[in-house]
Amino acid sequence: MNCHTWNRPAQLLAIVILTGAAAAAQGGRGGGGAPGPIAPLRAAVRPQPTNLAKYVRDQTALVALGKALFWDAQVGSDGQTACATCHFHAGADHRLQNQLASPSGVTTALTGNRTLTTDDFPFRRLANPNNNNSAVIRDTRLVAGSAGAVHRTFFDVNAGLHTDDGATVSSAAPTSLGGLELRQVTGRNSPSVINAVFNVRNFWDGRASRIFSGSTPFGDSDTGLNVLAGGASGLQPERVRMDNASLASQAVGPALNSTEMSYNGRSWPKLGKKMMSLSPLSRQRVAVDDSVLGAMANPEGNGLRGEYSYQQLIQAAFQPEYWGSTTVVDSKGSLLKIMAVPDNSNEFTQTEYNFALFFGLAIQAYESTLISDQTRLDQFLEGNTQALTPFEQQGLAEFRGGASQCTRCHVGPELTAASYTRAAANNVNPGDPNDLGFFRIGVSPIAEDVGLGATDGFNVPLLNPNRAGAADGTFKAPGLRNVELTGPYFHNGGQATLEQVVDFYGRQGDFGGANLGPGIGAIRLNAAERTQVVAFLKALTDDRVKYERAPFDHPSLCIPVGHVEISPGVPQADDSSPVTAMSAADKWALIPASGKGGNPVPLQTFEELLSGIGNDGSRAHTLTEACRP
Ligand code: HEC
Ligand code: HEC
Fold this sequence. Notes:
With 629 residues, this protein is an alpha+beta fold.
């Protein structure tokens, strides 16, 4: 139900149902054909979440809570997986090992724990990269995703402990190598959380609804009374319906998802109980000059100072109607006793019960601060004619011009048509389930991933059923800021460099015919123009992102970077606890804490990581510094 990443079995089902209706192979609507205007990000339309004041009383406390939760590895069932584990690098993930998934979801020697190399890219290699009809030299049909959680069954949370009780599920999950379970890998590449606040709907397929339900990502499909609100007559179940809140909808997906962060079967009240018993970021460093958490940081050790508990942060941020009761409820929210405290882990406080509401709104508030509107393109568009070199300006002209078609889809201040700005310009009510900004560009065959053609966790089509055929194989056009730092590219992570991406466009996509909507077929770019476009794409980096300056600074995080192997293809068992015994031991790399002044050196790009450029210390996030989670 809480699927965050693309749910594979459901997806395959959707293909069977939908291909029949997919006769009219049109791509998404969007720029409307004529190349559209580009504007500075500050000009973007960004409506605020509605009725926020009903729940929130202090926005500053809300952002602090959101930043702590986003970076806190204790949220994962294993106590080792944060949201940031897959969004640590310019808001995305550039790890190399154990990052591959196959379309079938079954681990093979080609995927399990493999380390990506330069030679792996592009995944589909053609004899002539400028001709998509030339001989296919190799086509791995893999996905470069993100390593998340080992497949385990959830038993219970342990108050005061960062690890949940559970058991490794062997063989039921097709993710084992040499008899040991590996961390599962998502079926799509991790997009950046930076500027995601501008997306009307989030995820590659838009399934994080604009409407926040307080519990699941699926908006109005979820009609549950998902929170308990206090009043004179005790606690009442209440429906949450907040508009312009796709980031909150998105945030309540991963934390219970058994591929990404959770043992299978955990509930929100259980996660609430766990987090209420732990101090924020208790095993991670917070810089004393962190732009949000610095004033609360513990200068002597890890995390925040003792007075800043999750309880305290929630109470500071939210209205007391949602946490102030002393009533104890069961997992369904039914009254057990009044003026009491829970006696066992199946009894919950109001705060624990409402934890999904707090989690979604807090993370949304934090992510809404991650806006990179100081790129050189933005400076140029705001009047600084020196901000782009003449060569980059030629690239901008190519990007805007009809021959490249780029602004048919990457348009407006956000550089994507999947935006409120575009919805307003096209007079589309963004509340209608529509395909504005979703396009079919031939990255993969439709049958492999139907994108917006799928259904949500309640089996409701992501696009209006009478346009279902139009949705098949379309994906959200990403805004392109900081794209230099967020490789590998596309929903399948199949391109390592921007040169490869632009070659892809130059040959008019990898899969033609019905796999292609309008636009791509009209692209005409010669070699010189391609270099210009690439130079332009590299001018879309905000230095604050590149050097992790505020608001892009963050606590430290130890991330898994593949599994230890005794000999090639034979992982080593993790004997650290009975829960982990049947799984492979992890390798760990430190993402050090940064304060508001950022790092002295720039982030390493994916391309540089592949070739080891910057491992001498001239880049940050080289994944070479070991750590213990
Ligand atoms: C195991 C890796 C992993 C973890 C952990 C993870 N994510 Fe993601 N995230 C992904 C992937 C993969 C996608 C794309 C999935 C898709 O579109 O189907 C994604 C998509 C997103 C998006 C959508 C961006 C866009 O442009 O559509 C946001 C926002 C986001 N994640 C935030 C979070 C938050 C908040 C958490 C923690 C609650 C989190 N992620 C945890 C891998 C991860
Ligand atoms: C018809 C619409 C369309 C056109 C035209 C188009 N794009 Fe895209 N672009 C998309 C979509 C949709 C995606 C995501 C596709 C996917 O992953 O399946 C994308 C992805 C990208 C990415 C990868 C971003 C990431 O984070 O993975 C880059 C870079 C990019 N486009 C640049 C360009 C450039 C440069 C041009 C012009 C040469 C262009 N695009 C033309 C729709 C379009």
